[in-house]
Design goal:
Elements lengths: L1 E3 L4 E9 L26 H4 L4 E5 L10 H6 L6 E5 H22 L2 E8 L5 E3 L4 E3 L2 E8 L4 E8 L11 E2 L1 H8 L9 H8 L5
Antiparallel strand pairs: 1-2, 2-5, 3-4, 5-8, 6-7, 8-9, 9-10
Length: about 200
């Protein structure tokens, strides 16, 4: 992950999931500051009474393989202020759909993050920025395809397909280079398409 101190949340997170990555570790809800963020991460009190969920960017449900993985997914450095109906609705649905891809393709690589635009609001004494949008970028090596999603930070009953995007568009809106480790020609082709 890359932690953005100015926004008190991740700029992006990256994780890999696979069919054998899942276990039976139960969710613990042990939200806490991340000791590795030397400038201090956001705090529980920033979210208290704000009306926003502490939204995971790396989902706890992807970290069921062991106690350490589950516990570390609850560091505040993995949280971002999400509208409750968004976090518990369409965002959760997208996370579940990405997990299902492991049944078809085994290994899936996921980059998640906020899209923060001018005019944003903040919560808490640490002025945690509330993103207007979130993205997920998925690379499925076995199928040689990428899937991008940009979702507004509000509840929605629209189908997930309506939030599809190219990886190029995500990179344009975030100024990130998401899959820079790939060979340039392959990266350019995959990132320009909206995969089915």
């Amino acid at each position: 992950m890359s932690y953005a101190e100015a926004y008190e949340q991740p700029e992006w997170t990256f994780h890999m999931i696979c069919a054998k990555c899942f276990g039976d570790e139960a969710r613990k809800n042990n939200f806490r500051e991340d000791p590795k963020v030397t400038t201090r991460s956001s705090q529980l009190m920033d979210y208290k009474g704000s009306g926003f969920d502490r939204g995971h960017l790396v989902p706890a449900a992807d970290m069921t393989r062991n106690e350490v993985a589950m516990s570390e997914s609850f560091y505040m450095s993995n949280m971002s202020p999400q509208d409750a109906s968004f976090n518990r609705g369409v965002w959760r649905k997208l996370e579940g759909q990405i997990r299902e891809l492991c049944n078809l393709y085994d290994t899936v690589y996921v980059v998640s993050g906020p899209i923060i635009e001018p005019g944003y609001s903040t919560i808490g004494m640490n002025q945690v920025v509330v993103p207007q949008y979130y993205f997920k970028a998925v690379y499925i090596k076995k199928a040689e395809k990428m899937m991008g999603f940009i979702l507004p930070n509000v509840g929605s009953s629209a189908p997930l397909s309506s939030f599809r995007s190219t990886i190029d568009d995500i990179e344009l809106r975030t100024s990130l280079d998401l899959f820079s480790g790939l060979e340039d020609e392959k990266e350019a082709i995959l990132e320009s398409k909206i995969a089915e």
